[in-house]
Amino acid sequence: MKRAHLLALWLALSPAAHADDALLPALQLSGFATLGAVTADRSDLRFYGADFNAPARQRVDFGADSVIGLQGSLRLSKASDLTVQMTAKRNPHGDHRPQLSWAFFRHSPADGISIRAGRLRVPFFMFSDTLRVNYAHPWVRPPTEVYSLNPFASADGIDMLVHASAGEWSIELQPYYGGGSIDLLGGGEARLHGVRGINLTASRDALSVHLGHGQGRLAVHWKDSGFRALSAALALAGPAYDALADELSGRRGRAAFTSFGVHWDDGRHQFIGEYVRRRSDRYVDSAHAWYLSAGYRTGSVLPYVVLASQRQDQAITSLAPPAALQGAFDAYLASRSDAQRSLTLGVRWDLDSALAFKAQLTHARIGRQAWGSFYPDEGGRAPGGRRVNVLSVAIDMVF
């Protein structure tokens, strides 16, 4: 999709972003939806995506990408408004309970400056604002190698949007502060506290550049069967391994996240690239990831190719377990790593200005000591080192 079309779409979905509130009706409503299906050629593996929703047990999974969202914005004055967004998507519990993605008050004290407070999208990635608006992306989903590195999409806090011009460049600076939580597979929870960061976006003609950094305190409380078994075994091994147990789950972690992205779309040629890096001192591994995407638009059809990779930089902990638990410990660390690389061939067909069909085939090679974007059936073979082909199709719409 052409960059200008993308911006126009998102302005329509984000009334709070309009500069001239006097032209807006008091209440604006909009929505988006995706009906998707995904299947893998390994019957004992299930694809689970970047936001760690519960993997399906069926060979064809209709819940990994399917989502519906509704958004409303109420203008309170020329300089102030309220925005609320609700989304329903399969979560780690396996249901589709609606979630409050956005709920913020915005005030513009001067031209080019907006202050927002409430529940906000955290700009960890180049496409954070449109994370679940799949119609705004060329692919069925943003590459999981990159977008699985930070599953925190929303935070409760405050930010500021400062718009300026530098020659032919349009600049947006976004400092932010807040915190948020997510549910984990198996009933656990992760929290970010005191997150502070800054995001910079610069646009000129067909080019857009993103640079962001954020850091804060991290708490992760795993409750899945793999963690419980390992934790119980370490407890039996005695107090000498208490320090190791404290690095696997708890509330004393710190994490930092850096991202850089480039987007070029001149209406015919499309190039997108993004690099991200996560640093954590415990609970989750440190890793980096990237993708490069290229497409060529012919009429309403956009074929594309994507190369993507995620690699682990540092394991969750450098402490060693008892010798008798080494095998179980290595298996546990593998289950917490999403390292993999992939090649994707796909096509997007815009059926009209608000409806698109997409299909893509991904060949993934999972890291030897990792699970990648897959979850094994209970008692099945571990994903590490395996090659998997994944077919995904989706219909995206905005309304």
TrEMBL record:
Residues 1-19 form the signal peptide. This is Porin. The keyword Signal applies. InterPro entries: Porin_dom_sf. It comes from Pseudothauera lacus. Keywords: Signal. The keyword Signal applies.
